[in-house]
Specification:
This protein has about 400 residues and is an alpha/beta fold. About 30% of the residues lie in helices and about 30% in strands. It is built from twelve helices and 18 strands. The longest helix is centred in the C-terminal third of the chain and has 14 residues, at about 270-285.
Amino acid sequence: MPPSCVALIVAGGSSSRFGGSIPKQYQPLGGMALIRRTVLAFQGHPGVQAVHVVINPAHRALYDVALAGLDVPPPIAGGAERQDSVLCGLEALALRPEGAPARVLIHDAARPLIDAATISAVIKALDEVPAALAAKPLVDTLKRASAGATTVAGTVDRAGLWQAHTPQGFHFPAILAAHRAAAGQALTDDAAVAERGGIPVMLVLSNADNMKITNPDDLGRAARLLGQSFGDVRTGLGFDVHRLIPGEGTIRLGGIDVPHTHGLEGHSDADVILHAVVDALLGALGAGDIGTYFPPSDPQWRGCDSARFVSHAVSLVHQRGGIIAHVDVTLIGEQPRLSPHRIQMVERLAALLEITPDRVNVKATTTERLGFTGRSEGLAAQAVATLRFQET
């Protein structure tokens, strides 16, 4: 099992710079409250086991309306400043009945356009380091203003400069200790708290649209991005077949072991479902097929878990800036029966694809005892993958 990871959403600000009758985190964005959109981004991520929210207790009524119907724990009361609120949240996580998490992702509620790929990248970085933050390299030329802020006093070398975003991920005991030690220091973000505590922090490339809502113009820009982003929809079809042979009581299907009288013959684990899914993803990318990357002539893939093939295809989708909107799979064969294993298979596929289970469908059919599948000589699978990309 991977280390437990929870998201801590910081939403305790009063939004004095934003103005308006209610704080920005409760403002509507794309048909729902901004904070709800932020919470859903983490709640729907397979690498996050729970989402906790820190709020200003004075905003409890707004919070209850904004998150109505979501399965989230009661909100945590924050402090006077953001750093105080984060410490309040961490202290509350340390006292959870189920125990403190191994990892925590700290994220600003005012960044509602956070994407699954950035969340995944921060979580993955924590396998190597105790702290990581989503960030964007600075590309614009930087100018230092004069004392009166009306003329340029000089140009700042931007080499090596990054703009810090959230989420910022940490090994929980380390960041809790660092926050306790930094109480009252008024540091600008949680990575700065970690730095002060001597914790090395890794930079992880953030999605450029992972913007922070600060003023009404930002809210308008975020609304436009929601309407315009990921409007380029592409579909791929995958198909695979493997022969049934006398086996040892199980076959690998959809990433799980399924009891069966026969095995599947193949160079890898012969997981016909995962192979079809990989080809569907690659087809939508226009990136060849599974044999392009994992040729059966290469001995290193003999007996390999096909989950590795899926993970590679998913990484290609993310590298090209895409998201997986949906995957639909059909298993074709007389046996084994799929229904006892369908839910587990859907959950396994969702985890491998780094999407929520409601975006995965697995079903089965027969060929009415016609053909090689009807004679139980083999199994076939077909998959359809729908990817979305930002319009250019």
